[in-house]
## 1
Amino acid sequence: MKNSMLAELLEHKVILILRGLKPEMAIRTCCVLADAGARFIEVPLNTAGALDCIRLLSQEYKNSPVHIGAGTVLNTDAVEAVYKAGGKYIISPNTDMEVIRTTRELGMLSIPGFKTPTEAFAAVNAGADVLKLFPCGSPDEIAVLKTVIPKPIFAVGGINSANKHAFLEKADGVGVGIGVFHPDMTMTELAKSAAGFFSKVQ
């Protein structure tokens, strides 16, 4: 299952980061995003009610092509909490070996953050499935890193509709937050924002 989800992620190329998502708006919000083409939804754990959102969304999309995971996961207790809530992947802003190992032991996709080649190779050796360059610099930086790093790299930080193509030409995918979603958006605004981002994204 994890391998097929990884293949889907690399084909889809986009993780939506829903920082500030409220549990009472979670299903409605993700319905709008899924209609626009979203398939990978990240709820950062430093969002109030994040585990409730993950639990609700994991139940709602249990038998669908939409995959729910957690971001800003900083320790193994958080990994286990996400697993119990039904999350399918773990994303971190940093490279933590224990977080990576626990994620793998629980059968979830591991996507740790890195900034340097040293961190990247440490994550690879610990068993990471995908690497998150955070904060990402230029697309050319990613191209250089990919010549030596033997895992897919997603660019995260400052991605939006204007620069998505430049990053997707060099990276294996992107993580996008405020470039698509803000918790104060109306559903109409969100639908327009998401449709604009996902148009011709692949």
Note: The first strand starts at residue 14 and ends at 17.
## 2
Amino acid sequence: MKRTKIPDNSKIYFYAVFRILIGFMFMLHGGQKLFGWFGGPGGNGSVALTSIYGFAGIIELIGGLFILLGLFTSIAALISAFNMIGAWIIVHIPKGFIPLTNGGELAALYFAAFLVLIAYGAQAWSLEKILLKKEFMH
């Protein structure tokens, strides 16, 4: 079977879809914590802003928005990666080390995605390219 090669000039658009999707989903997680979107936690649908979960929600909402828009992407991804390390240590490790048994699959996948975003930055379809005429930190 012959494999079809994706043209090099189109790969940046696949990456842009990846960045936008990761940013959008992470932003939704923050909104879920802070505003109770989609049945958020805390009994009343949201968490206190002054709690550790509120702090995480702020990082998720703002970091996700910046990643989605492609604005200061590497910095937003770095802060978000540390947020996932914190989630892993505070929430998931006490339930066991294996992500499938401690509910940490999403934290692990987000962490890996943020490493990719740190390394590659915003690229196509980003406000960094539009506003700064270049990528911040790349």
Note: Residues 24-131 form one domain.
